[in-house]
Fold:
Amino acid sequence: MDENKFLYIYNQKIKPKVKKFESKRILYAFLSIFSMMAALILLITTVAFGDYVDKYLGKYWALLYLSEFIILMLSGMIYAYFQVNFESKLKNVIMPILCECIGNIQWSHAAQLFSNDTTLIIKSRLLPPELNIKLDDTFSGITKKGNWFKISEVILKNNQVFIFLKFKGKNYANTILIPKGEFLCYYMLRKIHLEDVRLDKVYDIYTDDEVEARYLLNPSLMEKISNLEKTYGGKRASLSFFDNNLVIKITTYNDAFNIGGLFTSVNNASQFLGLYKEILAVQELVEYFEN
Structure:
């Protein structure tokens, strides 16, 4: 589906549903700004008239500053509560419609981490196995040829997106590509160099089958990976082939799959278009392996 077709579907199916959220968004945004401004004005006023505060409160002046600091923190918590509440309600209504527009995919929020997910992450060697992994937004689907894919936002210290692809009739050797400077325990694998000097300067490659690794990590695939990195606004991607799986990790600078900001109108189609592009980039990668 091209961008124009998606925007047509957005105007026909999604936009009518989001209209009712606009008044609530404006109210939440106003209350958030009001609470923060009131707390800041109170704090600034107290600092500006510090001499009078010291004169009339004496040794209790510190309690006033502490109270105002707590009020300022509470105003931030109010904003966070409104943001999470609004985004959650908007996603529960819009995501099923959006998934239907894009294709045969399903969405879940704060998805359960299945044992299969844990197994894939451990086998990929892209994260230490002892990490406590939790999922946020997750999309999963099946292509026309029966290949399965899953996109999950992983909650760790940094924002990370994991992409799982499972291909029918494939059996890959273990090949890992990671950005320079990253290191995990790649036992039983040997480091190789690509013929493309530009890629060899930014990535390290480990494999137990050098011939297959060079075949897999060709310029066409690396172009798709580069598109993923740009689409998700992330750093260099890491990827791991093994068995009939490909696992990709992208450390992002942004909150992936983010819609429903308090200071962005729900009538702004760009946020939904951005989400569409994030999923489309993965679908194009899956289709690359089906051709």
Q: What stands out?
A: The CA atoms of residues 44 and 111 lie 43 Å apart.
